[in-house]
Amino acid sequence: MASTSGGPEIEQLIQLLSRLPGLGPRSGRRAVLHLIKKKEQLMIPLAAALDRAVDAVKVCQTCGNIDTISPCTICADPRRAETGLLIVVEDVADLWALERAGIGMVRYHVLGGVLSPLDGVGPDDLSIDQLIRRAPDYSEVVLGINATVEGQTTAHYITDRLADTGVAITRLAHGVPVGGELDYLDEGTLSQALKARTRF
Amino acid sequence: MASTSGGPEIEQLIQLLSRLPGLGPRSGRRAVLHLIKKKEQLMIPLAAALDRAVDAVKVCQTCGNIDTISPCTICADPRRAETGLLIVVEDVADLWALERAGIGMVRYHVLGGVLSPLDGVGPDDLSIDQLIRRAPDYSEVVLGINATVEGQTTAHYITDRLADTGVAITRLAHGVPVGGELDYLDEGTLSQALKARTRF
C-alpha cells in the first residue's frame, strides 16, 4: 500500500531523507510533509540550495576541509600561517567546531578518520602522508584527535612518523569541560584534570 | 567566523536543513557533512528528488491528501467508495499511518488541523465545509481525530454540523494498543479499555 501514500516522487524523497543522520523512516516522512506544507518558504529554497551546493562544494586538496574553493578559505589566508600552528583533526565536523570556538589564526589537517585495523582502515586510507609533507612548514603540530583507543593509536602513529621532522608535537588538553559538572564526568577525565591542575 | 566553515552555499544548506522537524543546528551540520561525503549516492539523488517533488506534488482538492495527481490515487479509485466509509483525520501523516496499517478500502478527509480558539484556528481554517458537502455520499463518517481536548471539541463540532445529513457518525475505538503494556498506559486509556471490554 506504500504507493498510495503519495506517489513515487514522494516515496523516493522520504527514502532519501530517511538516510540522513538523525532521521529515520518516521522522521523522514514528517520532514517530507513539513517540506510540502512549507513549499514556498522551505522546499523550493532547499531544492535550490542543494542544487547550488552540489555544483559548488569542493574538498580542499591541501587540508581536507570542505569549501567552495580549493585551496579552502583557511589554507588560502596567509595570516593563518603566522602562528605556525597546524591542528590535526579526524573530521571536517571537528574543524568546524574549532572554528566556531574562534580559536584564532591556525591551519588544520583533516585526517578523514582514525586507524582501525578491525574496520580495515590503514595509514593509506587517511591523509597521513600529506600531513607528513605539510608538517615541516609549521612550528607545531597540535593533535586534536578524539581520546578513543583508535584515536590515541593514530596519534602515536603520527608522532612516530613526525619524529624526524623536528616539529613540536602537542595535543589538546584533557580536563573538566567549561560549565561541566564533576558528577557527570568519567574517571579518566577527572584523573587527567587533577594531574594537569593549574594555579588559581 | 561562520563563513570560514564552508562558504555561503554550505551555510545556507545547513540553515535550511536545520529547519526540518527533528533536526537542529548541530544535526543540520552533521546532515550536510554526510550529504557531501556521500555526494554521488545521496546528495545528487536528493537534489534531483526534491526538484521532481517540487514540480509533482499536489494537494488533493477533494480530500486534502498529498499526491502527484488531484483527485489523489485514493479519491480516484472507485473501489474505495464501496465500503461507504469516510475517515476524518487531522493531518496527512494520520492518513498515511492508516494506509500503512492496511485498513482497507476506505476514503479519507484531511481537516488540516483541529479547532483551537487560542491559536486562532476556527472552522473556516479547516476543511469542515468540504467535509459537510462530501459526507452525504458515504454511509458512515469515522472520526479519526486525536483524543486531545481540541481534537474532541472538533469532533463534537463536526458531529453537530453533520446531524441533519443522517450519515452515521462513529469514532475509532479507544483501548490498549496491541503489544502495549498496561503499566505504561494512562488512566484514561485504561478506563476506556475496561468500559469497552469484549468477550474473549
What would you say about this model in short?
The longest helix of chain A is centred in the first third of the chain and has 18 residues, at 39-56.
Task: Give the second-level CATH assignment, the architecture of the largest domain in chain A.
Answer: 3-Layer(aba) Sandwich
CATH topology of the largest domain in chain A: Dna Topoisomerase Vi A Subunit, Chain: A, domain 2
Major sheet of chain A, described briefly?
A: 4 strands, parallel
Shape of chain A: globular
Integer count of domains of chain A: 2
Family (chains A, B): Belongs to the RecR family.
Function (chains A, B): May play a role in DNA repair. It seems to be involved in an RecBC-independent recombinational process of DNA repair. It may act with RecF and RecO.
GO biological process, one term (chains A, B): DNA recombination
Protein name (chains A, B): Recombination protein RecR
Structure description:
The structure is a homodimer of 200-residue chains. Chain A is an alpha/beta fold. Chain A has two domains: 2-56, Helicase, Ruva Protein, domain 3 (Orthogonal Bundle); 79-171, Dna Topoisomerase Vi A Subunit, Chain: A, domain 2. Chain A is 43% helix and 10% strand. Chain A is built from eight helices and six strands; from the N terminus they run H-H-H-E-E-H-E-H-E-H-E-H-E-H. Chain A has helices at 7-18, 25-37, 39-56, 73-76, 92-100, 128-134, 149-162, 187-195; strands spanning 58-59, 66-67, 85-89, 107-110, 140-143, 168-171. The termini of chain A are far apart. The interface between A and B is large, with 58 and 58 residues.
